[in-house]
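User: quick one
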Amino acid sequence: MDKLMNLKLKVWRQDDADDVGRFEEYQADDISPDMSFLEMLDVVNEGLIGSGKEPIAFDSDCREGICGSCSMVINGTAHGGQKGTTACQLHMRHFSDGMTITIEPWRATAFPVHRDLVVDRTAFDRIQQKGGFISVRTGSVPDANAIPVSKDESDLAMDAAQCIGCGACVAACKNASAMLFVAAKISHLSLVPQGQPERERRALAMVKQMDDEGFGNCTVTGSCEAVCPKEISLDFIARMNREYGRALIKKGTI
Amino acid sequence: MDFITGIFKTSLGRKYVMAITGAGLFGFVVMHMLGNLLVFAGPAAINEYAAKLHALGPLLWVARIGLLGMVGLHIWSAIKLTSENREARTVEYDAAAEPVDAHRRGDIVAKFAARTMIFSGLIIAAFAFYHLAHFTWKVPQINGAGMEDFESYYVADDFTTPLAEGKEGKNHADVFKMIVTGFKVPAVSVFYVVAVGLLCFHLSHGLSAMFQSLGIKNKNIAPWMDRFAVGASALIFLGYISIPVSVLAAFIKIG
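Assistant: Done. Structure below.
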């Protein structure tokens, strides 16, 4: 086994949404390089609990990079900055012994901090509720090949559908814009036949909800794409811009 | 939500406004540069070109109002979008971005030109106002050329012979003499070069971002759009600054 590491953590602590919050420093000793970032935090929390202190609150669920729960800005970078990786899949071997790691929550007006590193991401749910779905008849399972979908389009739709809604795009964007998320959702459904009936209404309603939630605008910096753990392409934002324009011309109203 | 509110009251709509007016203003910047470069063809060429523009009459006013409208919409959407962006993140990150893969830092952190669009834009707007006062409204107090009155620079119908007495609307303006006298003042030329530099810095981001806002960018053509943005900005910079540089180097002079 590789040599254990001793690290210094500078972590954002905030008791609740109304608290002003502050940074606190902790020592993380005897950390295995094979631990994930969240496992390292678990170890630190065990220590905190042992000494009667409040553990650091953070979101996590699957810990295998597909649920989109974990959300922290590690050294100023959403999910830590390894290509296509969530914080739970980021291993401590990427850090060096003795280094100080700053851990902050997602910072966006639309994502208010609940506690410590936990932010309220229900803004994404409300955007989804405005059109991130398709309406189909329920009943017996349709034949697998009843609706033909071309391979190219289904591949592209699946690329967009990879979005796990973690919010790293918002966290990384200098404008706290949610465009990559919304673009992935709009593109995914606009590319497949099942998404056609609500295509225009979806684009108009989801964009409007995104604006109402108080997310910023796109400056085409590419930061979102660079931190996205699912490597959602900036191309989808261009596609969303087309979809929205098309919907305005075709429908003009929600 | 109808079509108009869909354009002017939403994030994506305002980005369309930004991109379309930006493209229009880029067109003006190119045409204005090509016109200005006629200074290298001598006094007759540029004075005749200016006279022809003035002879357009009502059409000239249509162009001027169109340009003013585009500038207004461009600035309005810029201020609107920027203030929304500021409100969208009121608490900044404490740590500077240092990704575990250090080589990815350049992709993760927004480029300087992208982060400063509002500032480069507003300074360019201020310069444009000064530039109009300098050469269009011919305010003698700001030309720095010892109160030279550009209002008195007129040429005869051959576009070269200076007239001692001329009248706006009756005689042709001596644009060549205005350019040479104007840029002979080093401070004016330096300010001009800095402003054009900022404009090209602004364009180096804007010219590629506008394709994205209009939904016509993708990974296959994005590298070409980025090259176009940088290449066009560089050419525009060289084209514009060649004039004050040539005047200061006495390559272009009167007589």
